[in-house]
Amino acid sequence: MAMSLDIVLQLEEKIDQLLERKKQLEVDCQRLGDEKDQLVQERDLITQELDGILTKLDVALDQENH
């Protein structure tokens, strides 16, 4: 009987550890998702800026050639 109780207590402890780890992983996933969203926004802004610069260069080159 004592052995069964010991096993149950060990299992409960392991379950608690796993639940805590799951909670931490969920927090990490949320943080990484937020970071990804921010990086995607930065990439989009940089892409827009580059497109604007390339458009200005195209216009300038067209004006030089005419």
Chain-wise SSE layout:
Blueprint (H helix, E strand, L loop, with lengths): L1 H64 L1
Please provide a written account of the structure.
This protein is an all-alpha fold.
Question: What would you say about this model in short?
Answer:
With 66 residues, the protein is mostly helical. Helix content is 97%, strand content 0%.
Backbone CA Rg? 28 Å
Count every beta strand, where a strand is a DSSP E run of 2 or more residues: 0
Strand content: under 5%
The low-confidence parts are: none
Distance between the termini: 96 Å
What composes the largest sheet?
Answer: none
Counted by DSSP, the helix tally is: 1
Q: Give the overall silhouette.
A: rod-shaped
**Average pLDDT, to the nearest integer?**
95
Helix content: over 70%
Question: What descriptive keywords fit this protein?
Answer:
single chain; 66 residues; mainly alpha; 1 helix; rod-shaped
